[in-house]
Design goal:
The protein has 21 helices and 6 strands. It is mainly α. Residues 457-480 have a biased composition (Basic and acidic residues).
Length: 480
């Protein structure tokens, strides 16, 4: 038998399309894996985290709100959102809308904002990533999607699903893209040198501020739900939290846009801070409430992950440890103590405490980055002369103040934009369910329930809402 020569795909025809000279397969593989990690944080991570943390009657509705957001962001992102966030400048805080799904665009080499205007001249800010635009668009989509999903955590247990379906594309368009372009896409905060390594401001502070604002306009849950809201499945919630934690490896590790030294530092710092924060939060629970709380451990894990995000690849290991101690302490205090004293927190019903876990922790992380960003690591992220945290002297104090100004802009924009969006929606669609629907929960919202009747392997044949889906289906069959 004659020998058969197998020609590797990379050396067959159309090689310049499949494997162009600029493509780094290692970087491309890492970036796609990172994007998948971030995507899995949302679906299934947040979907099952929300499903487990809420009262039984809201398990399906909470999971569906997250699931819908994950799907709804994608067409908006391709049709206009990506270029509004990372395209050519329209105004200092917004990019020009445009379609990013054409083949020519997707197969070309990815690019990022390449210059900063400093002292009258333009300075290169980042090397071009060595992979195609398709990879970059998917990576950034995962961030956009999870931001809206995090926001949903403040609204669980009462928001009309129809209002939510209208809210997601509007908020992505009018709020998320502004923060993304301003800080990451070449906008005025980018030019000013704001440090947000992986979304402490763009993702977490934005979702926390917008979620708290939206909770105000939508209104609170039923009083009985506010007073008694036990999680229906803590083991399911732990599974979702675990996916969220491990997925953060890609969330922060993918933001150098290459498989490099800074990526490794970012991953290690992420897990140092998360673990420390979880342990510190648990210790505070034991000290003040005499028992360690599983929900508290999840909250501490999240605050640690959020806090390290703006500085993951910019700070040293000892700083990540200190940030974990502070992120397990300050958000714990605002959630467990301060929120019970201030009237505002009694008026605004933030279901899962997104304000504390994301807005407070995100602001804290951004401020601490302004203190502890190491000059050598900062130079890998910002090509800005003498870029450093205040701890290292020089212009570090200025950087710290810039971080506070950047946080203020993100908070202000999200409060205003979210309010306008919801006031517009409520002209056409009620923002919350009726009291009758709130009494029933999932069956009223979807005609479905999360769990079968215990021990029978089937759902209840009738519900508080009246006719069950089972009965409706039987009626339809009989009519047919």
């Amino acid at each position: 038998m004659a020998a058969v020569t197998v020609v590797p795909l990379a050396y067959q025809s159309n090689n310049t399309i499949n494997v162009p000279e600029w493509l780094n397969k290692g970087d491309n593989a890492w970036q796609m894996v990172s994007a998948a990690f971030v995507g899995m944080q949302g679906m299934p991570g947040l979907v099952i985290l929300y499903a487990g943390l809420v009262k039984k009657k809201w398990a399906l509705n909470s999971a569906f709100m997250a699931l819908y957001a994950f799907a709804a962001v994608m067409p908006c992102w391709i049709l206009w959102g990506y270029k509004m966030s990372f395209g050519n400048r329209l105004i200092p805080l917004w990019g020009k809308a445009g379609h990013s799904g054409s083949q020519d665009f997707l197969t070309q080499q990815a690019f990022l904002p390449s210059t900063r205007y400093i002292d009258g001249s333009y300075i290169a800010a980042a090397n071009a990533p060595l992979y195609p635009m398709a990879t970059m668009i998917f990576f950034q989509y995962a961030f956009a999607a999870i931001t809206v999903m995090l926001l949903a955590g403040a609204l669980l247990g009462r928001m009309s699903i129809k209002a939510w379906m209208a809210f997601v594309p509007l908020w992505l368009t009018l709020s998320y893209t502004v923060g993304a372009f301003s800080i990451w896409g070449g906008g005025f905060l980018f030019q000013w040198g704001i440090m947000d390594y992986s979304g402490g401001y763009v993702v977490h502070l934005a979702s926390g501020a917008a979620g708290f604002t939206a909770a105000y306009w939508v209104g609170p849950r039923l009083q009985e739900d506010r007073e008694e809201f036990p999680p229906n499945n803590l083991l399911l919630a732990l599974a979702g939290a675990g996916i969220l934690w491990m997925g953060w490896t890609g969330f922060n590790g993918g933001d150098p846009f290459a498989a490099n030294v800074d990526s490794s530092i970012a991953v290690l710092n992420t897990h140092i801070c998360a673990a420390t924060s979880l342990l510190v939060w648990t210790c505070w629970d034991v000290i003040f409430f005499k028992k360690p709380s599983v929900i508290g451990a999840i909250q501490g894990m999240i605050t640690g992950l959020v806090c390290i995000t703006p500085g993951a690849g910019l700070v040293q290991g000892w700083a990540a440890l200190l940030m974990g101690i502070l992120s397990g302490t300050i958000p714990w205090y605002t959630m467990m103590s301060l929120s019970r004293r201030l009237p505002l927190f009694q008026i605004v019903d933030d279901t899962l405490g997104v304000f504390h876990t994301h807005a407070v922790a995100g602001t804290l992380g951004g401020a601490l980055t302004g203190l502890f960003a190491h000059p050598d690591l900062s130079s890998l992220f910002l090509v800005v002369p003498n870029s450093r945290g205040a701890f290292y002297g020089g212009d570090g104090v200025v950087q710290f103040l810039k971080q506070l100004v950047g946080a203020s802009f993100i908070i202000g924009w999200n409060v205003v934009a979210t309010s306008i969006i919801l006031l517009f929606i409520r002209v056409f669609i009620p923002l919350r369910m009726t009291d009758e629907e709130l009494q029933v929960g999932d069956d009223a919202a979807h005609g479905e329930e999360a769990y079968a009747l215990a021990g029978k392997g089937q759902r209840e044949r009738s519900t508080v809402n009246g006719t069950s889906r089972h009965d409706i289906e039987n009626q339809e069959l009989e009519r047919f």
